[in-house]
Amino acid sequence: MRFRIPAAAILAGVLLFGLSAGSPAKTRRVIPIVLSSFKFEPSLFFVNEGDTVVLQLENVATDRPHAFNSAYLSTVDVQVSGQGKQGVTTDGTKYIRLEPGEKAEVTFVAKGRGQYGFVCNLYNHAARGQTGAFVIWPAGYHLPAR
Ligand SMILES: [Cu+2]
User: Fold this and answer.
1) At the top level of its lineage, which domain of life is listed (predicted)?
2) Per the domain annotation, does 21 fall within a domain?
3) Residue 106 belongs to what domain range?
4) Ligand 1 centre and the CA of 76: distance in Å?
């Protein structure tokens, strides 16, 4: 009995500490996305709310630019590094344009659980099939394999 109480107290402390820590180490979710004519690979990906999402974009086309355009990008703070050129479409949505062979990283913290679309906004690429979507699941929700 003398040892049960301290053991329980330690366990409770560990549990409370764990709970009070509240926000566990943020998951860094790196998603490589290959852009080509006329598709994204993958065209569907999944993240959890609160993840730091790093989209590693690469345009592997040798003959034309491609872009990653999503209305979602206007709802979060986005950092873009690498070779991409940022712009805003006439409908006010952000895009990152990559010339042939260029790479860029697009980083944001996922918020707002739901399903969001993205397209290549250049020329008629979206109409030719260059579209995709991603799903932001609640934090801690086990992501389906992709
Ligand atoms: Cu394109």
Assistant:
1) Bacteria
2) no
3) 28-137
4) 23
Q: How many domains does the chain have?
A: 1
As a whole number of angstroms, the distance between CA 42 and CA 143 comes to 15
CATH number of the CATH domain containing 51: 2.60.40.420
* Residue 138: partners with Cβ closer than 8 Å, 6 or more residues away: 48, 49, 113
The reply to whether 8 falls in a domain is no
Name the pTM for this structure.
0.82
Ligand 1 centroid–CA 66 distance in Å is 4
- Ligand 1 mean position to 1 CA, how many Å? 70
In a 3-state reduction of DSSP, which class is residue 44?
strand
pLDDT tens for the chain, residues 1 to 146: 455 555 555 444 444 444 444 455 689 999 999 999 999 999 999 999 999 999 999 999 999 999 999 999 999 999 999 999 999 999 999 999 999 999 999 999 999 999 999 999 999 999 999 999 999 999 989 887 65
